[in-house]
Amino acid sequence: MTKAKRKRLIYNIVTFAVVIGAYIIMQTMIANGSITRALKGQLIPICCWIVMAVSLNLVIGISGELSLGHAGFMSVGAFTGAVVSGYLLHALGMENEGLRLFISVTAGGITAGIAGVIIGVPVLRLRGDYLAIVTLAFGEIIRNIVNVTYIGVNGSDLIFSFLNKNAPEGTRMLVDGASGAVKVGKISTFTAGFILVMITLVVVLNLVNSRSGRAIKAIRDNRIAAESMGVPVTKYKMMAFVTAAVLAGMAGAIYGLNSSTVVPGQFTFNQSINVLVFVVLGGLGNVLGSVISATLLTVLPEVLRAFADYRMLVYAVVLILVMIFTNNPAIRALTDRMLAPVKRLFTGGKEEAA
Amino acid sequence: MTGQKRRSDTIMVPVPSYAIVPERDLGSQPVLEASHLGIEFGGLKAVEDFNMIIGRTEIAGLIGPNGAGKTTVFNLLTKVYEPTTGTVLINGKDTHGMNIVQASRLGIARTFQNIRLFGNMSVEDNVAIGLHNQIRYNMVEGILRLPRYWGAERRLHREALELLSIFDMQKLADVRAGSLPYGAQRRLEIVRALATNPSLLLLDEPAAGMNPHETEELMDNIIKIRDQFQIAIMLIEHDMNLVMGICEGICVLNYGRIIAKGTAEEIQNNPVVVEAYLGKRKEEAR
Ligand SMILES: Nc1ncnc2c1ncn2[C@@H]1O[C@H](COP(=O)(O)OP(=O)(O)OP(=O)(O)O)[C@@H](O)[C@H]1O
Ligand SMILES: [Mg+2]
């Protein structure tokens, strides 16, 4: 095995070990009751934000495209999940929660993936930062669409109306316009969230270290050179973008099915920026970094409840500081020196070549 | 298609569409046929009426003063730009309306004057991108690590190292491409282009930034690559030792137009070329 491959393998093992270890610790704490209520309530959201951060990292860090509407895909997934789960329960009488969750999450991934294709096909063939503008708009558009969408079940019929609520007497509303999805039924579980995190890690880490992932990175590093090698740019940009959208949709479904109501206002531009902050703080292209920063930044506001009002301010300041730090060669050299012993630990004492 | 394929009588100015195909290749189909190629950038005719034929295993040179349009010719041949006039045939196929990727699949590969490596990727991964269309498995096979993934990756690793060994670079396989020294970056670009299995390799100033010793080695290697891979090579260079030393046919550009074609000897003794380019270089050197 070459040194680069060994390093990659170690990185992947550490990443999985951290996630699995955290899961086991949490399950143990739940079992012996030593977990606080607040933290327990955060477990499923943490899983969702990890998936959001890692998938956005695929777009921003690995494929090098700026997406500002990742919460939009989460929203698509959340409402799809709520509708599918409600339909399965109320129209088809499916009581099995695990199966219902599985089908809802899959459906959420599919619809978000379709949304990703719809956005990606026209935008990703353009050069320049159009994706940022379009995804930003997408997040807002989805919110406004859900605001005027009414979906309900009546008997075994799915009732759908747009702009005006138009449902016969006795319809059970699944999505009720601006009030969002009501009485969703909490069927998400921590284990389901953990499984989705694991799936995300396998998909992203294995993709990155495969033929397709190399093509995605090559396009990021130098588009013209990649094309000259016969690598079709649009195809691989789509691959990264749609994969991320599917994962975000699945995270959205689990997130939505974790609360009794989901409103479109939950998935705003601010949420997209939050996820962007996770990615930047964790390091572009660094999957483990995304996992850690998504976890910490989801837990911290709960811990520092008193300062919650200043959270966005702190985010902004931290984001700027991180950008200064990661882009300043002198500071980077310093942190590299400080981290050298840690790195040696992982590379088996051998120094970096060149 | 250009007219007769015969060697030019070099002193004519400007030289019309003559081939610089060595006699031995006249029978087989040329790798490249460019005729009446031209492009304008907002009124500036960067290249005009460019005609050239390159045979199967020929080494051709493209020289001329700075800004003559040499790199622009490469960009036209590889479809970075769509020509305003004229046609390009690669292995007999018209590239009209094609994009860079489609042209690459016809068998043309290149290096860049301003190096364009995948700087954050390893040396081996850079070559692996060159091999992208030869060793295939799909996204799902990659994510699920199915047997095809392992087989393909093993082959990829072996072939990448084999290609790197042309320049004795196997030991650098794990190094980040962006951190290689300049000369090694240029060599890696050649390896990466070769990995695409081209029939025509375009080298844009391959010796730029190399010391005389490295340049000497590069010359040997270019010949070696041609002989081993049986491909045609066209190179842009300002190093006249290299050009005159290894190019079987040379084409001189000035202000976007071909002012001469011929063998090294013919070009060196061509008064028009001496006036426009070679003479000036000697003066500068003094
Ligand atoms: N994309 C472009 N847009 C506008 N002008 C261009 C473009 N590309 C090239 N040119 C112009 O075309 C002319 C030829 O440029 P080119 O790069 O082909 O020269 P060159 O012969 O490769 O020179 P050098 O030896 O310096 O590399 C120059 O005047 C250049 O400014
Ligand atoms: Mg040039």
Structural overview:
The complex is a heterodimer of chains A (about 350) and B (about 290). Chain A is mainly α. Chain A has one domain (about 5-145, about 180-354): ABC transporter involved in vitamin B12 uptake, BtuC (Orthogonal Bundle), CATH 1.10.3470. Chain A contains 13 helices and 3 strands. The longest helix of chain A has 29 residues, at about 5-30. In chain A, about 45% of the residues are buried. Chain B has helices spanning about 70-75, 100-105, 125-130, 140-145, 145-165, 180-195, 210-230, 240-245, 265-270, 270-285, and strands at about 30-40, 45-55, 60-65, 85-90, 95, 110, 200-205, 230-235, 250-255, 255-260. Chain B has a 6-stranded mixed sheet, sandwiched between helices. In chain B, β1 (about 30-40) and β2 (about 45-55) form a beta hairpin. In chain B, α3 packs across α5 and α3 packs parallel to α6. Chain B is globular. Mean pLDDT of chain B is about 90; it is low at about 1-25. At the A-B interface, α6, α7 and α8 of A face α2, α3, α4, α5 and α6 of B. The structure holds adenosine-5'-triphosphate and magnesium ion.
Strand runs of chain B, count: 10
CATH-defined architecture of chain A = Orthogonal Bundle
Greatest interface and its participating residue counts: A-B, 31 and 49 residues
Shape verdict of chain B: globular
Summarize it.
The complex is a heterodimer of chains A (354) and B (286). Chain A is mainly alpha-helical and 354 residues long. Chain A has helices at residues 3-31, 37-62, 70-91, 97-123, 130-147, 190-208, 211-221, 223-228, 233-256, 269-282, 287-303, 311-327, 329-346, and strands at 149-154, 157-162, 172-176.
